TrEMBL record, chains A, B:
GO terms for molecular function: peptide hormone binding; signaling receptor activity. GO terms for biological process: signal transduction. The lineage of its organism: Eukaryota, Metazoa, Ecdysozoa, Arthropoda, Hexapoda. The keyword Transmembrane applies. This is Atrial natriuretic peptide receptor 1. It comes from Orchesella cincta. It is found in: Membrane.
Length: 474, 474
């Protein structure tokens, strides 16, 4: 068993550090590290238990989410909300396993080391942990649990607060965006794991499933398994979609979206101006001046063709973080802390929405705990603390965060379009999860493909096969 | 909180009672009763934790399985295997809930009151409990967990021993039975919950799914939701099946099987002698002289017609218990104990296969524990004890019980046919899970429908539509 201790280290700080800080990392010999970080203060303690996988390839790995949690714990805001309270952060690797995750939660519970759980993140871990935590009366705050099942909190997930919206909210947002243009007739074309792969359905399946539900039905839906098929016949698939739809919602990895759009360009679907494609990017904050069509390994000619193809694409993402100095400082400090304390480099990727959500989770919990204490309650009353987090709007690191009366964040989504000159994507409208309405961005407009000045209809005037108009020869 | 205590009660006993026995029932105010039964002896303790639902409508409710567990604990056999060891049995109501079940297991674990788990029974409870118990090194013995997923024990269910076979074994047995008659081309017609009912798939779906797998494929499969549809169009369904198959495997509740066979009789499928029906009854021990066609509420005429219809039916069940005096005494004592100590009346139903399996579970565990102790091991070494239960054949209450090297019982199944004179079903052959072979019963033969002396082919000589033979007019 290796134990590494630091005392009084100079942690890069976002808020003020009030006291010398002690950071202690203990690697257990079972390979799942338990670690502890304490904001040393006299007085009572708040024990935060973080449950997430350690696999750095995941957007919500411990290495990525511990820095914002640390920063929130050290922030001026939390110091004011919870004066004279020692805060201890412990974390465990769930391995995204339905055995390891719940057993880690059990350990925290029996050792009385969890006043609140941050995470877990993987659905098969959240489900049991949030069920048990409900019985234990311990709040669970996670930007995961976006599936529909987690919306039902009376029976099963009574202390679960969802910090990053849900797939069904994406569906609602999409239907509002489509309604802007009078589109009801759309096709869904997305990545899903093949039947028999043992992997269940993909996130794309769940996400677009809510679009299907929100629209009541949809004329065409097709899926492909991007992990199994090397060369998928996108030409053939697009031709069959073209026989039934003009508006196509895609969900796949960025390289596959590029392949699909290149195939569409090849089929003259882009230059005709008759087609509009959407794609969905929920788990990344897009870099400023994002150019998804550009592939460093492709030829200039191929990139030029891809750029033309992307003229027909609109992208739906989580609302991008603000450009503020405060947010820039946050982004920078997260990366420094990750590198210095968790040996992880973000590279030049912007921090993702899970990172900001975990910062906000600490602020929200501290706000609610402060209220519970002010009302004579105790830190052990997780049900009361949970109820104070619901139906609340507060200032998070990316702006206002609104939690609805069911304990789910009214997440905002944005619609991005490409400037055909620069090739960079920029926001043209937002969807507000709170007001359920579209807010258009002033002084920008969507560039429609094929030289159109306005959007195409979802059904061609003469029908998909032209049979709706009299033949010219008549 | 009500507490009822008995001391030195005269429990009806199957084996010898060695010492005065203490039975204590404590009803917790959360409605989930925790109870304790002890075979009081000086010396070290064996703590048995029973996890099952309390709902008496279920075949494996606590009221039905605690009597055989009690009797096994008190038996001469266990006394000899574990001399000088106090045995405490505690039980908890899992409510078949994926929250209550695991939390009950967790309570046993943290209180150090489980050397072994008997149960749980419901799949959604077994899955987490068996995962956690594997990590805790606590053996789990259950006649549940018949689904395919529980076969894989290396990763997830390392201490799970399955006492009542599995659906895949039923599939194997069925394919051997069908092969006896050269039948490969069959139809499956069964109860399944409707999509959107939120109930997932039925046991019939899982059971017949293994037949599908064992046969590689099947020409026709149709399902109906017997819980939702009051009047199902069995005539229509049978007509469409008749266009594609002659051998039909049914799985449904006994009244629905009767409805289907009456419809078949009406369509002359029985009198033609061309059709053979099977049904599957895995969870009940059929009464001696079982007459499933008889409905006390039906007219004599209807019952006569049903009896004729059942001439076309063969039934696959778990192998019935023996007629021995020992087994009769067991059956009687289970019922007396259930009535006297657990306030539950079996009525005149035979005890079901889960009841006998729990008796056997205690014998098997005690045998393995005895071996572990004799080899210098300890009761806390659940992995060693588990390995000694696997690849073992022992004398259970219904005869030899064989556990394979994967820790799954080589369950036996039986084929029953109706004597057309008496109307009673009787065993005509057994399938041995251990030898994977059919054992025909001497001096009995199957009565084929429609006056045939031998079985019909699975495909009519002239094809299903008669087109395979030259027309008579030619």
């Amino acid at each position: 068993m290796r134990v590494t201790s630091f005392s009084g280290v100079d942690i890069p700080h976002f808020g003020s550090i009030i006291e010398p800080v002690e950071l202690e990392l203990a690697f257990q010999n079972d390979q799942s590290f338990i670690s502890r970080f304490e904001r040393s203060l006299k007085g009572k303690e708040l024990q935060i238990a973080v449950l997430a996988p350690q696999d750095p390839s995941l957007q919500y790995s411990l290495q990525k989410i511990l820095p914002p949690i640390t920063m929130a714990v050290l922030s001026e805001q939390v110091r004011q909300l919870l004066p004279n309270r020692k805060i201890t952060v412990r974390y465990r690797d769930t391995k995204c396993s339905s055995t390891d995750g719940p057993l880690a939660a059990f350990d925290f519970y029996i050792n009385h080391t969890a006043d609140v759980f941050l995470g877990p993140m993987c659905d098969y871990v959240i489900a049991p942990v949030a069920r048990y935590a409900g019985r234990w009366g311990i709040p669970v705050l996670t930007p995961g649990a976006q599936a529909e099942a987690f919306r039902h909190k009376n029976q099963q997930y009574s202390t679960l607060t969802r910090l990053a919206g849900s797939y069904s909210l994406v569906g609602e947002g999409f239907s509002k965006i489509l309604a802007l243009f009078g589109w009801r007739h759309v096709a869904l074309f997305y990545h899903n794991y093949a039947v028999g792969s043992g992997k269940g359905h993909s996130l794309c399946h769940f996400t677009l499933g809510t679009v299907f539900t929100a629209l009541n039905s949809t004329p065409v839906y097709k899926s492909f398994d991007e992990t199994q098929e090397d060369r998928i016949d996108f030409h053939g698939a697009l031709k069959s979609i073209a026989a039934k739809a003009r508006i196509v919602i895609l969900c796949a990895s960025p390289p596959k979206v590029r392949d699909i759009l290149l195939a569409a360009e090849d089929l003259k679907m882009v230059s005709s101006g008759e087609y509009v494609f959407f794609n969905v990017e929920l788990f990344t904050n897009l870099r400023k001046g994002y150019m998804p069509w550009h592939d460093a390994n492709a030829t200039d000619e191929n990139n030029e063709r891809a750029k033309r193809a992307y003229e027909a694409l609109l992208t739906v993402t989580v609302r991008p973080p603000p450009d503020s100095t405060e947010y820039m400082a946050f982004d920078k400090q997260v990366k420094e802390l990750a590198l210095n304390k968790f040996n992880f480099s973000f590279g030049d990727e912007p921090v993702n929405p899970f990172v900001t959500a975990f910062y906000d989770a600490v602020i929200l919990y501290a706000t609610a705990l402060n209220e519970t204490l002010a009302n004579g309650g105790s830190i052990t009353n997780g049900t009361d603390i949970t109820s104070r987090m619901w139906n609340k709007t507060f200032q998070g690191i990316t702006g206002n965060v609104s939690i609805d009366s069911n304990g789910d964040r009214n997440a905002d989504y944005s619609l991005l379009d490409m400037d055909p000159k620069s090739g960079a994507f920029h926001v043209v409208a937002h969807y507000s999860g709170k007001t359920k309405s579209i807010i258009e961005v002033a002084n920008v407009s969507i560039h429609w493909p094929g030289g159109r000045t306005t959007w195409p209809p979802d059904t061609p005037k003469c029908g998909f096969d032209g049979s709706g108009c009299p033949s010219k020869s008549m």
